Amino acid sequence: MNQYHRIRRISTLISALILVSSLLADCTSNPKPVISIQPAEALADQPIGIHLSGFKPIQKVTVRVSAYEYESDATFLTDAHGAVDLAQQAPLAGSYTTADGMGLFWSMVLKPATTTLTTADLTPTTGQPPLEYPIRYSYLFSAQVDGQTVAQATAVRTIGLPRMTRTELRE
User: Fold this and answer.
1) Are 148 and 129 within 8 A, CB to CB?
2) Residue whose C-alpha is closest to residue 111's, from 59, 51, 66
3) Cβ distance 86 to 104 under 8 Å?
4) Residue 91: CB atoms within 10 Å
5) 111-155: per-residue pLDDT in tens?
6) CA-CA distance, 138 to 170, in Å (whole number)?
7) Which residues pair with 148 in a beta bridge?
8) What distance in Å separates the CA atoms of residue 15 and residue 124, rounded to the nearest whole number?
9) Global pTM value
10) Which helix (DSSP H) or strand (DSSP E) does residue 93 occupy?
């Protein structure tokens, strides 16, 4: 192999390394916003962790959660790394005011003008909706910056276990 081919291979290798390093730099300097929910599926009385990451440093982010006819929201200011831990940081505004990892759940309110439960949903003997365990509730989380949704995640909360049964008692 002559000197010309060696220099050409080295310059091609250097160009490839520069390209790869610039792509990696873009990936680490501009991460995509993410809502992380751990565990994503849990019993209703089990605490979960909700974290935001990949946002710009010191940026206002509004987190909204909705489930069926209920909703809540909270606005946070990201830290110097573009992250928020809902258990450690109080919201600037929203449906609750203190640092609480479960605040978006317990502060949910009925959405305005929503009613979907009808008398057809009730059983004729008990007047209550029929229960089958487990009951699974899905919660849709969205993170918004300047009114635009930039990240979404889903959490599932379960009431009861498959082995549970409901027995009606009479006096």
Assistant:
1) no
2) 66
3) yes
4) 23
5) 887 555 554 544 445 555 555 667 888 999 999 999 999 999 999
6) 33
7) 145
8) 75
9) 0.69
10) strand 93-94
